Amino acid sequence: MKKARVVVVGAGVVGFSTAVCIAEALPMCSVTLLADKFSPNTTSDGAAGILLAVEFPDIPLERQRRWFKDSFDHLLAIAQSQHSPEAGVILSSGWQIFKEVPVDKLPFWSELVIGFRLMTDCELKRFPQHKFGQAFTTIKCECSSYLPWLENRFIKAGGEVKQRKVNSLEELSSSYDIIVNCSGLGSKNLVGDTQVYPVRGQVLKVEAPWLQHFIRDGDGKAYIYPGIHSVTVGGTRQEGDWRLQVDEEDTRSIMERCSRLEPSLSKAKVLSEWVGLRPNRKNPRVERVLVHLQGCRVPVVHNYGHGSCGVTLAWGTALDAVGLVRQCLNEMLLEAKL
Ligand SMILES: Cc1cc2nc3c(=O)[nH]c(=O)nc-3n(C[C@H](O)[C@H](O)[C@H](O)COP(=O)(O)OP(=O)(O)OC[C@H]3O[C@@H](n4cnc5c(N)ncnc54)[C@H](O)[C@@H]3O)c2cc1C
Ligand SMILES: *[C@@H]1O[C@H](CO)[C@@H](O)[C@H](O)[C@H]1NC(C)=O
Ligand SMILES: *[C@@H]1O[C@H](CO)[C@@H](O)[C@H](O)[C@H]1NC(C)=O
Description:
With 338 residues, the chain is an alpha/beta fold. The protein has a domain at 4-92 and 143-192 and 282-337: Rossmann fold (3-Layer(aba) Sandwich). Helices cover 32% and strands 30% of the residues. It has helices spanning 13-25, 43-46, 61-79, 84-87, 121-124, 143-156, 170-173, 186-190, 248-261, 310-337; strands at 4-9, 29-35, 89-98, 114-118, 132-141, 160-163, 178-181, 197-207, 214-217, 223-226, 231-234, 238-239, 269-280, 285-293, 296-304. Strands 3, 4, 5, 8, 9, 10, 11, 12 and 13 form a nine-stranded mixed sheet that branches. The radius of gyration is 21 Å and the shape is elongated. The model has no long low-confidence stretch (mean pLDDT 95). The protein binds flavin-adenine dinucleotide and 2-acetamido-2-deoxy-beta-D-glucopyranose (2 copies). The site of one 2-acetamido-2-deoxy-beta-D-glucopyranose has 13 residues, from β7, α8 and β15.
């Protein structure tokens, strides 16, 4: 039988995870990944890559838990293997601290990370402005290494990669049987999902090899994440802000907020600065639709809008996307028989 032609649009962490999962799970498909930007030029590349989730309002918690757990277990296996340095995936321990006690002291992912516990008053003394804290071990997945590693894995599974900007669905419908949309914030421009919007984030990379534990303020505006080659320090959350250039005022305020949490940071050398736009959406969109194009019905699987959790949820939502592609294949088979 002829192979079903699947195209995945997007070369960020969501696109490559989805492409690998489809190519490895569905050998009856030929899989092509198309994108205009590749590592090191995607949003995913600059993400700190810490596995931490927010709770989305309209997605069953069971499904969010599965997304988190599938991603965590997949990355944990890499972190605990010889592939860890090349893939850029490591374990990371530290503290999330809060100025006010949060309503949800035990987030849904607390039982999915390693060794989650509340901080003691004694531990909190170090952070006099903070009243409450959580200590745990999670994963840091550095996409500037992880994306090239996934690309290799995709090619080994028979996948093909092409650099190209896609301007409309019509462009793809004659060459492919199933379209998988992992275009992140790009989804806004294509035919216009007005629900996706940017949340600007600026971060710095600094040299501070003495820092080994992460510290994150629960408000998301101050975090220090030690990584393999440097420490990521951030950040900002500016909604609707499309500016990609570094803002010196943001740099100053990030350093000020983070030095309050970790005074030794003032001695760290700044290596680089970076800005990324999180593809925010009230809920990420992981679903299957039929799009009518020039009299044809083309199955489209959407997988975008992961906001601040793209690295955290990529593998889990990719596995869901595989299930949706499988459903498309079954329907196509059925139609062919009728
Ligand atoms: C400062 C900062 C820190 C972050 N920290 C974390 C963190 O610690 N943990 C975490 O889980 N997440 C974090 N994130 C969020 C994370 O970066 C995103 O959720 C994730 O990168 C989204 O991945 P994606 O693959 O959907 O999008 P992207 O990485 O943006 O990739 C989109 C891809 O689609 C392609 N594309 C778009 N439109 C088109 C088109 N028309 N034609 C062809 N190709 C197209 C692009 O070229 C690109 O290849 C952070 C983000 C920022 C900005
Ligand atoms: C990343 O962007 C730079 C600058 O635009 C470009 O020169 C480089 O070729 C890009 N890299 C990839 C892999 O696309
Ligand atoms: C991706 O989804 C968005 C939102 O529905 C849409 O505008 C865009 O055309 C889709 N892109 C592809 C390549 O399917």
